[in-house]
Write a structure and sequence with these properties.
The radius of gyration is 16 Å and the shape is globular. By secondary structure, the protein is an alpha/beta fold. It is built from four helices and seven strands. Helices cover about 35% and strands about 20% of the residues.
Length: about 170
């Protein structure tokens, strides 16, 4: 089965510069509608969300619920698998706290255990021909994960990384 790869949806985005309450809601609704339309127009594919599904570590609970319903509708209508790859907005900078990404991932894997895979531990093979490197905390860790990935032949490798990021 072919795979649709998309990333950086930043659902639940809250922008303050140059916005009004109405435009903030409009942005959120438009992102949700476009996200749902993309998924529902790809019922014949697996889907990889390659990081930053949400705009921040925690988003409003209503955003999590909306996203869950969108994924559940797609999973009910499709025969495809859903792969959720963590990005830098999904990483856990707060010790033991659970991100919105991981909360949603836990709910989805509980409801669809055979069809939802969460990739949040660096290098991971998702299916034959497709592997990912999820966000890691610094350049040294990324280099280690890349070293693992380059030994794998015949796979596309999708990274969610800030390569040589001087801030990390």
């Amino acid at each position: 089965m072919k795979t649709l790869i998309t990333s950086d949806w930043h659902l639940g985005a809250k922008r303050s510069a140059g916005t009004t309450p109405v435009t903030t809601v409009t942005l959120r609704e438009r992102l949700n509608a476009e996200f749902k339309a993309l998924l529902m127009s790809n019922l014949d594919k697996d889907v990889l969300i390659a990081g930053d599904l949400f705009d921040s570590f925690t988003v409003d609970t209503s955003v999590i619920l909306d996203t869950f319903h969108t994924f559940a509708e797609w999973l009910d209508a499709s025969a495809g698998s859903l792969f959720l790859q963590s990005g830098n907005h999904d990483a856990n900078p707060r010790g033991a706290q659970v991100s919105s990404f991981h909360l949603l991932a836990g709910i989805l894997t509980s409801r669809f255990p055979e069809r939802v895979t969460v990739a949040d531990t660096g290098f991971q093979v998702l299916k034959p021909g497709l592997a990912v490197i999820s966000h890691v905390g610094n350049q040294d860790l990324l280099d280690m994960e890349v070293a693992k990935a380059v030994e794998l032949d015949g796979h596309w490798i999708v990274c969610h990384a800030n390569y040589e990021n001087t801030f990390a």
